[in-house]
Request: fold
Amino acid sequence: MDKSILLIDDEEGIRRVLGISLADRGYEVLTADSGEEGLRIFRDEKPTIVLTDIKMPGMDGIDLLGLIKEEIPDTEVIMITGHGDMELAIESLKLEATDFVTKPINDEVLEIALKRAHERISMRRQLREHTENLEDLVKEKTEKLVEAEKLAAVGQTIAGLSHTIKNIASALKGGIFVLGKGIELDNKKYLDQGWEMVKGNVDKIKNLSMDLLDYAKVTEVKFQLCDPNKPANEVGNLMTPSAKENGIELKMELASDLTPFYFDPEGIHRCLLNLVANAIDACLDHEPGKQKKEVVLKTVKADGYGVEYQVTDNCGGMAEEVREKIFQGFFSTKGPRGAGIGLMITKKTVDDHQGIITVESEEMKGSTFTIKLPERTKG
Reply:
């Protein structure tokens, strides 16, 4: 039982008699002879139950009730009224007083009012404990769910990685078999064919290792104020010599009306580098007919976004069933040179920016990858 109670009445006799009665019930009784003094003691001691007269000089019980409920709404306030104060008593109930007792105060009536106050205190306490337990339960279940999702994601990653390694191992085994046949039959064609198979898959192992290292480095994005053309220009300059060496023209078309905003330039640099490298590989694997092989890296100002990046090639293109899988882990369109991690990292980085990445592609015509980043005004 809450032991502290504040008794407020301007009549000393009532304070003395009620104080003795409350003390006999086991309460620690605090007393005040005015509403102002009662409010001061209430603010200092914060009792859970207040017993106050309605009519007092200065601050009356109704005003005091309003201030108490405003400061600590859970306080139980029992009003003391005269027989002619029923309208005030009803008004106090509307202001969330617990109950009222009339003068002269009957012990049984007071006991009922106090019991009601304690029932309300107990009910609130139980509700609070139940709510806290429910919050703890929700937190526990949420943590378990998040952990399960993490384990599921790890499981999917391991499954994809295992499948990729299995494919590489099978391809190596096939290359070794062809090499063995070439040695056994002294057949140069088999030797050359087997050697190319082995070399291609050794390259794939190397690329897989590098992609896994890159994937491990990907952490939360580091936003900073930057010109959105900067990473595109860097990637274009970096990849131009490689494109030119392979007979591919790499064009840069950078918009002049872009303004700096907050994004992760290093992360976007990795995304664009991956897309441009993929486009160049597509041109290596396919012939665009009589057209010159071409890759275009473009930036534009898009409505509602800080920048739109486009990487377009005029080689190859993808079938619909391939387009649906390209952002999945360990799915590669680059044959023996790819591990299928690059586009997975790219999508994660764009998602972390709350951006959008899409692809449009038509077989035998080419593909366009588009990244849209929202304009952030602060990091």
Notes: The radius of gyration is 39 Å. The mean pLDDT is 84. The first strand starts at residue 4 and ends at 8.
